[in-house]
Amino acid sequence: MSNQIKASLWTISLTTTVGIxxxxxxxxxxxVLLLLHLYLLxxxxxxFSDKQTCECVVFFDGVCGLCNRFVDIVLKLDxxxxxxxxxxxxxxxxxxxxxxxxxxxxxxxxxxxxxxxxKSTAVIRILIRLGGVGxxxxxxFVFPMVIRDWIYDWVAKNRYKVFGKKKNCRxxxxxxxxxxxx
Length: 182
Hints:
The chain has helices spanning 3-23, 27-43, 65-77, 91-96, 119-130, 145-163; strands at residues 56-60, 83-87, 109-112, 115-118. By secondary structure, it is of the alpha+beta class.
């Protein structure tokens, strides 16, 4: 079944379900169903991106607890295997990211094709690429980058205190090995 047919069927299903519950006055159920439909959108294989496959690499601080949890979430939700991962401490990061930006390990980077994104923009673009519920992350683009990055910097500054810092970079499991560059 083509993506266009899948998207059409999904849209009809969503509109009918939400319409029925809104018509009956159960708005709170409609919100839950909307989130469920967005989540399921990822599993039927509909992509809102022009490129189904691309070089999508997430560069993260390999010793950061928060960063590793984010990678775990992306690995779990990325059922199509679109993302590759590399710690900022690895050789792939050194080859892809300007040296001046690698001095401090407080930023997530996301490389999509030839473009390199960082901080809040990287996180939002990763969420959008995941599809499903991640599409809601696209709403964060409404906020100016200055505000988004200020919040990102505050979280990054406090991440070790709250989420901990590992002594070594993430140890990749055999199941994850194909998804990691370093």
